[in-house]
Amino acid sequence: MRSISAEDRRDYHLFNMIIVDDEERARVGIRTLIDWQAHGIVIIAEARDGQEALDILGTHPVDIMLTDIRMPQMDGLELISIVSGKYPHIKSVIMSGYDDFAYAQQAIRVGASNYLLKPSRRQEILNTILDITEQIQSEKLEIKSLEHLRQGFRESLPLLKEKTLSQLVLTESPAYPQLLANLKMNNLIFPYLLYGVILLRIDNFRQLHQKYLHEDTELLKYGLKNICEESLPETIVCIAFEHQDDIVLILNTDELLDHEELSGYIRIIQDNILSYLRFTVSAGIGSIDKNLQHLRRSFLEASQALNTRNYTGTGKIVEFSGEFDDEASQSSYPLHEEQEVLKAVRNSSPEEIAGKLTQFNVALQPETVSRDQVIKSSFALFFALYKLCIENNVNVNKVFGQNLTELIQVLSRSSLDHIFQSLLETALLVSEHLTSKKNSNKLLEAAKLYIGQNYMKDINREIVAREIYITPGYLSLLFKQQLKISFTDYLHKIRIEHACLLFKDPGMRIEDIALQSGYNDTKYFYQVFKKYKGITPNQFRSNAE
After folding, report:
1. Which residues contact 25 (CB under 8 A, 6 or more apart)?
2. pLDDT digits (tens, 9 = 90+) for 43-58
3. In 3-state terms, what secondary structure has residue 143?
4. In the beta sheet, which residues pair with residue 117?
5. Mean pLDDT, rounded, for 285-302
6. Are 135 and 205 contacting, i.e. CB atoms less than 8 angstroms apart?
7. Which of 84, 125, 222, 496 falls 20 to 30 Å from 343 in CA-CA distance?
8. Are the C-beta atoms of residues 114 and 93 closer than 8 Å to each other?
9. DSSP H or E run through 242
10. Rounded to whole angstroms, how far apart are CA atoms 538 and 545?
11. DSSP 62-111
12. CB of 401 closer than 8 Å to CB of 395
């Protein structure tokens, strides 16, 4: 094996490569005939067979592995198979003679990124490796892009914004002044006279959901909203929010835009989404008119345009035909009933929850609207319950299982009665978890109250637990989960803060202060005080004076 030193390794540019070949002449040729450093590549190590290569990979950072097929101990096929499972980020390139071409094809199947036929020319080897570096760089940029979206998502205030925009557009008679005040908190204002809605729908959304984890799917939708808001000219205010996996764009402008202008802007949005996020969207266009009240009608128009039977394919742009179907307004989402269900889940009995759910189901009007619309609305309530769990730090896996996508797919193939029953069971389970959490909060407050009244006594975890009728272990868990602090640290902090108040009396001896703060041992009091205050009691008294 030949390996570069740690000092040399600090100088590498972007990519580390290992050469695996039992022929020294072949390894030396590959290493010396190409100026790898000039292309940002360092030959970080060489190995004579697959087993030696695996030993190196355990201690060296490697991006690219160039390996022969026929080697002693462990051949290239077995090596690539192991590396693909253990180090999936490593790109493998197989080298084989013409007689081994079938092995090269098998290597591709087990994880190799490319292959070279021996003997290979210098430029052919270099081009192949440079193609691999471009793949790695592209993957790194995609990861960086997702991380950037993740950071922006965490730092924003999506919940209030989404809820407010949803009420503004989807409810029939919202409280406009309050909603506009909420939007102003997010630095969102509508300065112009005209309003309209564009509705965007991700094409083949199910495939996207299968490709990415749930969090990454949400990040992509977050990125989609950003692209929409940033793609239109400054003369048009564009605010985006999510509704049942669609993206609703509120347009605010001082000029009446015709179909051709709106379609042009939508095509820009579609091109940017395809370029940056790698998927397509279709759009439904509602009319533009004066005053905020028009937003709801424009949304219904855009929704009907997008749901028309004539709409097929991907990347489509469909304008409202002008013939409004009353069914569209009848099938709008019962937001008020949803809020009543969530309120009952937070505070009410199982009977009250069941009653509110029945009202929600009746409001969906399953006997008059399409099954697809009822299913979508039911799933929206599922996600509202899911969001309620997140907001209250309830473990969603205990309520919805490990795979929410699988749950939704199963329910989508179920009868409406089964879906409604599943909604009721989920709502009741969420309510149980919230009630349990409230009881935990009450127990914690009881423990804090007892400590506040008895900290000067010789109390400990067991005594406090016995007083509020729980086990010492559960008491410790409450402090850790709710306050992110241990029981002992909390007790010490209460005692030390009381001691600091007593130091205001210059006539009190430190021994008396320690005793009144719950410490019979003055030396131990000195140790604890310095740990939590960073100075000794004498220094604290001097500073106070």
Report:
1. none
2. 999 999 999 999 999 9
3. helix
4. 96
5. 90
6. no
7. 222
8. yes
9. strand 237-243
10. 11
11. -SEEEEES--SSS-HHHHHHHHHHH-TT-EEEEEE-GGGHHHHHHHHHHT
12. no
The contacts of residue 367 (CB under 8 Å, 6+ apart) are none
Beta bridge partners of 115: 94
The DSSP letter of residue 396 is H
User: SS3 letters for 179-233?
Assistant: HHHHHHHCCCCCCCCEEEEEEEEECCHHHHHHHCCHHHHHHHHHHHHHHHHHHCC
453/498 Cα distance (integer angstroms): 12
Taking the complete model, does pTM exceed 0.85, yes or no?
no
> In this structure, are residues 345 and 385 in contact, taking their beta carbons and an 8 Å threshold?
yes
Say what the pLDDT of residue 310 is.
36
Between 285 and 393, the higher pLDDT residue: 285
Which H or E element spans position 57?
helix 50-57
Count the neighbouring beta carbons within 10 Å of the beta carbon of residue 519. 23
What is the C-alpha separation between 353 and 343, in angstroms, rounded? 9
Sign of the alpha-carbon dihedral angle for 178, 179, 182, 188: negative
Residue with tokens 């077995």: 78
- Cα(383)–Cα(72) distance, integer angstroms: 56
3-state helix, strand, coil in the chain (%, to 5): 60, 10, 25
- Residue 527 phi, psi (nearest 5): -65, -45
Residue indicated by tokens 């004066």: 290
User: What does the block give as tokens for 449?
Assistant: 């109250």
Each residue of 196-230: pLDDT tens digit? 999 998 887 666 766 777 788 888 888 999 999 89
- Please name the amino acid found at residue 406: E
Q: What is the phi/psi pair of residue 84, to 5°? A: -60, -35
Please tell me the distance from the alpha carbon of residue 423 to that of residue 277, in angstroms, as a whole number: 33
Q: For residue 3, what are the contacts with CB-CB under 8 A and spacing of at least 6? A: 44, 45, 46, 56, 60
Residue-wise pLDDT tens digits, 371-396:
577 778 888 888 888 888 887 777 77
| Residue 196, pLDDT score | 92
CA distances from 198 to 160, 306, 331, 353 (A): 21, 10, 18, 35
| Comparison of pLDDT for 227 and 411, the residue scoring more | 227
Phi-psi region of 541 (alpha: psi -120 to 50; beta: other; left: phi over 0): alpha
Asked whether residue 468 carries a pLDDT value surpassing 70, the answer given is yes
Q: What is the pLDDT of residue 309?
A: 39
